Give the backbone structure.
Amino acid sequence: MAKKTVLVSGGAGYIGSHVTVELDAAGYDVVIADNFSNCDRTNYKGVCKITGKELPLIEMDFCDLQAVRKLFDSYKIDAVIHFAAFKAVGESVDDPLKYYVNNLESFLNILQVARDKGCNVLFSSSATVYGEPEKLPVSELSERKPSTSPYGNTKQMCEDFLRDCVKAYPTIKGIALRYFNPIGAHPSALIGELPRGVPNNLVPFITQTAIGKRECLSVFGNDYPTPDGTCLRDFIDIVDLAKAHVFAVTRMVEGKMEENYEIFNIGTGRPVSVMELITTFEKVNNLKLNYKIAPRRPGDVMSVWCDPTIGEKKLGWKAQRTLEETLASAWAWEKYLAGKK
Ligand code: WQD
């Protein structure tokens, strides 16, 4: 059978680059498109080293509809995975228009071209759509909550765009993957998370503190009504997360979907607290982390983790890597970056 081609928008970023590696390993042709507004070429170069290929890379902005049309005219795209979006929760509160214009326009452009060309669409969604769930663990049937940030709102709106387009246009099929907390790096330590400026997320802040780039990690609150007082999350290994995309794309291109629009939670189903993550990081990497307890961060959800059974059953995917392996990979990546200077 002829090889299928997958377009990865935002493919030079953290999740996009790991997904590209797994798609290539699964025998897909991959086209990467990125405007490099939120990353440099470090991960792209790492992807080329891991795959041993100079994968096609188009520098473009998905807010430019003509550029999106030109891209789809240049390649026969069987599925597009859409990562190209801004993703800093706090920044989205300070600058909502930056998020609404960029995140919505880019996806609407992809949907218009996917409708005209006939293409499967895989949308990178987030557990943030569940807000602070009443009942845990959350399943795909759990209700979404009004978002506490414009970033989270764009995820809900894009899910609805995809749902409505699939209903109206027979040329589009769609899957939304709701990620919990992606962490870690590829075992080769050639690709990983590359936050610009001060990291918002926990694990890159931990590794930058451990390497000495940051003075001290602030633990945002240890007075929550949870077992150790810190928040609970479902930390999903980036390689496991990337593999889930291969299962989802294959489900679409092989016509195995049961509905034309499907949603899957991508998590481990294993709640881990912030403190547990810190102590596991120290133990597996044999180091002492400098951290202090700080006030709660406004907008933080106290506890969220998923019931991954629907995704496991229908996608045939299951998270494999242990938290220890993931945190060792995050540290190896930080050391690789330090050595690159
Ligand atoms: C996790 C926990 C913090 C930093 C967000 C988005 C989600 C996804 C990942 C975008 C919380 C605590 C954090 C720190 C800390 N997409 N923390 N000190 O907020 O669960 O999810 O990012 O990237 O859609 O909503 O992730 O890593 O910021 O926080 O104590 O310096 O770690 O309070 O409890 P979050 P996070």
Summary: The radius of gyration is 19 Å. The mean pLDDT is 97. Residues 31 and 56 are 5 Å apart (CA to CA). The chain is about 40% helix and 15% strand.
